[in-house]
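Input record (one chain):
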Amino acid sequence: MCKGLAALPHTCLERAKEIKTKLGTLLQKPDSTIDFIIPYPEKPEKPPKAQKPSPEEALQWHDSLEKLLQNPYGLASFRSFLRSEFSEENAEFWVACEDYKKTKSPVKMAEKAKKIYEEFIQTEAPKEVNIDHFTKAVTMKNLVEPSPTSFDMAQKRIFALMEKDSLPRFLRSEFYHELIK
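The corresponding structure, as predicted from the sequence alone:
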């Protein structure tokens, strides 16, 4: 073994082995072309239960992501659209934070904070959201004593990301255009 690798901490070596294993799995050739087929719906599924907005109301979403997220049908439509693009974690995180803020019990708040952190914030989380290191550090510090504002900075960053990136794509989508007809 070279001296360079021997000098690395044990955890770095283990992490490198994990990455090598994952890359090896990705680089394997599929047994057939069926493996290349990814189900991708042409239109997102229409959301159930929420009342369909008028075309005028849906047009207001063009001006404000906040209006879109506050409307049950709008939120469901947006989440369905993001799901079709395999990028629903940001909306799910935003919804989880909104639910978290409504929690009154300190015990329940701590439980929800832990769940949100493990699902969206921690490195390698199943639905890890794209936030910068500073925001992640501030959020982790806030979780030492969970409060209704613990995730505010991260939620604002994700809101800005959705507003800048996801919302324009949604507004260009065929599903949105069907709503405003």
